[in-house]
Design a protein that fits this description.
There is one protein chain. With 419 residues, the protein is α+β, with helices and mostly antiparallel strands. The protein has one domain: Outer membrane efflux proteins (OEP) (Up-down Bundle), CATH 1.20.1600.10. Helix content is 69%, strand content 9%. The protein is built from 9 helices and 4 strands, in the order αααββααααββαα. β3 and β4 form a beta hairpin. α3 packs antiparallel against α4, α4 runs antiparallel to α7 and α6 packs across α7. The longest helix has 70 residues. It starts with a helix and ends in a 17-residue tail after the last helix.
Length: 419
Amino acid sequence: MFSKILVILGVLASTPGYAEEAKSLDELLRLAYQNNPGVKEYQQSWSAEDSLVTSQATLDDPMIGVSELDRGLKTQYGTVSQKIRFPTKYIYQANAQRSKADSYRSQLNAKKLEVKQEVTTLYFAIYSAQKIIQLTQANMESVKEFARVAEKKYAAGKSSQGDSMKAHFELTQLELDLIRLKQEEQALQDKLKATVNSSTLENIEISNLNLPPPQFAAEKIKLIESELLNQLQASSPTLKTEVHKLKEVEYKSSLAKWEFAPDFQLQYQKRISGDPQDSSIFSVGITVPLWFWKKSSEASAASAKKLAQEYRLQDTGLKLVAQIKDLKGKVSTGAKTLKIYQTSLIPQAQGAYNSSRSAYQANKTSFLDLLDSERSLYRVKTGYYQSLKQYVATLSQLESQLGFEVSNLSAVSEVKNEK
């Protein structure tokens, strides 16, 4: 009976109606955060390092044993001993481990931003690919219409047979482009499924949406380099990771210097057999830094690691500032490019195409001019979606490096279907 239930559930799960559907960007991001192996890896690493903080501030396990004193008469003692490090050392050990855990937490946040960047970029890449496929299919219909008009004109003796042949050649080229475009779109779908890591996720179909270009708020990014660096230290997971690593080595460097301070050994012995009666012994021992060169070398090494991490933090900060400036420039250029497409290039290409089409039907222009205007319109419209894809990819990368949003990118997927 139980096996039959499992079979039924398996059939239901494989039915399209029971497949997991996630079409909005927010839903895809939610799934990616839950399922992405890279995110899970950093979550577990952070959890492991965070769990070790308490252990670094805790005493080592005590030791118990039995000792025997032979002074003619044997006396046995029960022994309990406890090693206690100098109290300051526990503080530095715990703080160093806390900083290490914080660095892993920053790496987790960086990974989540990386996944967000990948999902967002793929989402708009799929949208652009599907829109270009639509344009290609619509263009094929237009060329088919051109071919029919050319054939009618040839039958009426108003044009040469070459016009019809050119139309069929153009149609073949578009068919080849369509095959390539569909293959590229499927590859993007597969990459998205791999990033989301959901076996039940179907191919998303978003070509019926009208996604406007995300608005870029450039004023949120500081212009002065020192201010931008301070802004990044407070927000960028990449830079915060290095800051926490610096704190870790600073605590370890201080700990290495405190290793010259003595540790303690407490021991208590209680008679369990033999004489004298009610005999007990309590002893205290301290470590002596006799082999001081060992501790000196460890302190020197810790100081060198601290300096190395300071230089690493400085280098990371300078490179990140330069990268942010570069990405900001590219995003600003991308926004201007899309504006030009919307307000100038597409209307001009559409007007030229409409004019050539009317002129050709009225025998006032050649078929070659008509094809040229059709190709220009197609190239301009596909160029817009290619620019949109690149703009979103750069904007997503910028937000990933900044650690905060500078656009309305997260809201642009909530757009109603085209009518």
